Amino acid sequence: MNSIFEKNLKFRNKWILERFMSLLTECIIPELKVIKASGTWKKERIIASPQRTRIILANGTEALNFCANNYLGLSDNKEVISAAKVALDKYGAGLSSVRFICGTQTIHVELEKKIAQFHNREDTILYASCFDANAGLFETFLTSEDAILSDELNHASIIDGIRLCKAKKYRYKHRDMVDLENKLQESMSSRLRLIATDGVFSMDGTVTPLPKILELAKKYNALTFVDDCHATGFFGKTGRGTEDYFNQLGSIDIINSTLGKALGGAAGGYTTGKKELINLLKQRSRPYLFSNSLPPPVVASASKVMDLITNSTELLNRLKNNTNLFRNNMKTAGFTISGDNHPICPVMIGDAKLANEFANKMIEQGIYVIGFNYPVVPKNKARIRVQISAAHSQDDIKQAVNAFIHVGKKLKIIK
Question: Where does the Aminotransferase class I/classII large domain start and stop, copy by copy (predicted)?
């Protein structure tokens, strides 16, 4: 009897589960159809080689890569790889723990010190990603008595991090300092006020108006926060990011950034600033407290990158020259390029389907680029976001420009 009952119960539970999963599928399928019909379906191309300027796809296609965040070309650097291998043998594959239990090794502390010294800050805290750093920052020290003022085009991780905190939220118009000042005046009764912005806006390659933000912060006694993921290591005279670009080193109160782009491209993020803030984050920041420590090979590779860029501007100078070469040649050819002389070079197309078609035809020309469209960018502002690397040669740049011209004429983007 028990056996029959158990079989019936198992059958019933399976039927209920399948029914609920069927309902879920019914809800999802229409959404997927809408995405496909709009021409914005994101198909992942599979790479079968290391991340470098010349890559090989799983289907055997060889291409020049012009869309990686590998700004300094260090993702496949031999010295960086060697450092990771040494750490793998010496410290293991991973920690199987969060930092405060048994997940902190000497190399974690050493990397945090190197990052703090690079930015000339008091201390640094490492995270699994900058997304985690943004998720763990605002709710840790902002209360319902505080206010946060955020640029409307800030990165999704900043937006999500802000949603988690209890502070009163103000969103000012993109890079509009008049609107920011109005919001600062509206929030005068708050205990703390934090102005939050990307240093470089990744979809447009535009730079936040930092000098004016700092001026307003001083005038209204506000704090400043900058996410510098698309600036750290290569932007500014010494590669120290947005404040370096504006000759304002040491001016930003809190900087968040990533190890997953220019600084080796592996993984990881961080917050750097006053020691008291970092101590509080280590006590209360949820992504830090409840996420495994960065694996030793990742820590070691990032540490090696910090050594390579701290006392040399060779790579960032090469990146600057490559950026100027690409931007100038593309504009001469008749393309509209967005951005403020940054290695992010958005080639504006407009129509989403056309942008995707353009990117597909570029791979036929041996150039790997991706079309960006809604919801990643606003509707009718689709683009090919080209990203220049210090590892590109001048011949690589010219080959990419020639491919753009060929496809651009074919699709009647340029004459």
Answer: 63-404
- Contact criterion met (CB below 8 Å) for 149 and 172: yes
How confident is the model at residue 5, as a pLDDT? Answer: 57
Cis before 375? omega within 30: yes
Which member of 108, 155, 261, 381 is catalytic? 261
Nearest to 271 by CA among 310, 321, 232: 232
Report the alpha-carbon distance of residue 83 to residue 100 in Å, rounded.
Answer: 25
pLDDT at 45: 85
Give me the domain span that covers residue 384.
54-67+313-411
Q: Confidence class of residue 325 from pLDDT cuts 50, 70 and 90?
A: very high
| 275 is a catalytic site residue | no
Instruction: Give the Cα separation of 234 and 74 in Å (integer).
Output: 12
Q: What is the mean pLDDT of residues 108-114?
A: 98
Q: Is 261 a catalytic residue?
A: yes
Q: How far apart are CA 273 and CA 226, in angstroms?
A: 11
76 CB neighbour count, 10 Å cutoff: 17
Residue where one domain finishes, among candidates 247, 282, 311: 311
DSSP secondary structure code for residue 124 in this structure: E
Q: Report, in this order, helix, strand and coil percent for the chain, each rounded to 5.
A: 45, 15, 35
User: For residue 414, what are its two tokens?
Assistant: 């340029």
Helical segments of 205-274, H only: 210-219, 242-245
Catalytic residue, from 202, 257, 291, 293: name it: 202
CATH of the domain at 145: 3.40.640.10
The CATH number covering residue 395 comes to 3.90.1150.10
The answer to whether the beta carbons of residues 361 and 316 sit under 8 Å apart is no
Catalytic residue among 119, 155, 230, 392: 230
Please tell me the distance from the alpha carbon of residue 125 to that of residue 112, in angstroms, as a whole number. Answer: 6
Does any domain span residue 122?
A: yes
Question: Mind listing the pLDDT tens digit for each residue in 264-286?
Answer: 988 999 999 999 999 999 999 99
